[in-house]
Amino acid sequence: MSQPDERDSIPVTSEEQTSLKQGLMTNGIKQPESVCNSGPGTISKSHLNQDTYPINAGIAVVINNIEFKRDLGLPDRKGSDVDASSLFQRFQELGFDSDLLNDASIEDMNEKFKEIKDDKENLKKTGCLIVALLTHGNEDSIYMTDVSVKIKTIMDEFNATNCPELILKPKVFIFQACRGGGLGRGVNRKVIRDPNQADAGAEYDAYDEIYGDTIRIPNEADFLAVYSTSSGYGSFRNTEKGSPFVRQLSEELLKMKKDDDFYRILTRVNKKVGMGYKPNFPNSGDVTQMPCFISHLTKELYLKQMN
């Protein structure tokens, strides 16, 4: 008998919401002192104007949280080990220097991020950073085993100011977590075959202009946030098979070809989970789960180009 699916969030009382707003959700990663990055550092114009991110080496970290401190009131995330092992294996197959952290506290994550940022020689050779967080979450935060941390706080650790070695390099953050307590809904329609219908495409022109000799790199540039579900909604996980989102992402990464940019991979995952997944729990009715991604990338990203 198949095991039920679960959501990676729990109901939050009004009292708990107030507590989170006042303190808990603002704690976590220590913000470094302000760093001035307007000194003699330079970037080459040819590097800036490349259409594709050059990736010869990469770093991947999978944080897999299953058990949490009792005072958080969070249930165990059974089945998440399946997700963690499959993602870890995919990243290794792509040639990434990969690490897996199980049941990581805020201190564990801080230490890992510090380790990455302190190895500046390795960062200079690194073409891409991937951080996957498999845990419980809310609208704008995720849980470590002992505290809630804002997603923005986590991603800011590697922005242009705080980690200049990764400027113009893709930083991909993957979140398998709820983003609210809502249930995504959809409508049921029969799919009919129309042999006369053809796919249509569109063309567009794009251009970039650079004025002067100085370019300002936004702190938000070259980030890609990948979410297992849409804002405000729950994210499901099977206690035996893992989550549908990570399962589909892992399968697409396995089948990925060299000419598949990551947008294409994520769009396939969106379709397969959004239109193909049906939660397995009583009275699920028309419940759905729609993954999404928010891109601040400035170039095309091809992960399967490592030697």
Distance between the termini: 43 Å
Number of helices: 8
Low-confidence runs: 18-40, 184-212
* Fraction of helical residues: 25-40%
Largest sheet: 6 strands, mixed
Range of strand content? 15-25%
User: How many runs of DSSP E, i.e. beta strands?
Assistant: 12
pLDDT averaged residue by residue: 79
The gyration radius over C-alpha positions equals 20 Å
| Spatial arrangement of strands, main beta sheet | 3-2-4-7-9-12
Q: In one word, what is the shape? A: globular
What's the SSE pattern? EHHEHEHHEEEHEEEEHHEE
Structural class: alpha/beta
Description of the molecule:
This protein is an alpha/beta fold and 307 residues long. It has 8 helices and 12 strands. The chain has helices at 14-22, 45-48, 80-93, 106-118, 120-125, 151-156, 244-255, 262-276; strands spanning 5-7, 58-64, 96-102, 128-134, 141-143, 148-150, 171-176, 184-185, 223-227, 236-238, 287-288, 292-295. The chain has a 6-stranded mixed β-sheet with strand order 3-2-4-7-9-12, covered by helices on one side. It has a two-stranded antiparallel ribbon with strand order 1-10. Mean pLDDT is 79; it is low at 18-40 and 184-212.
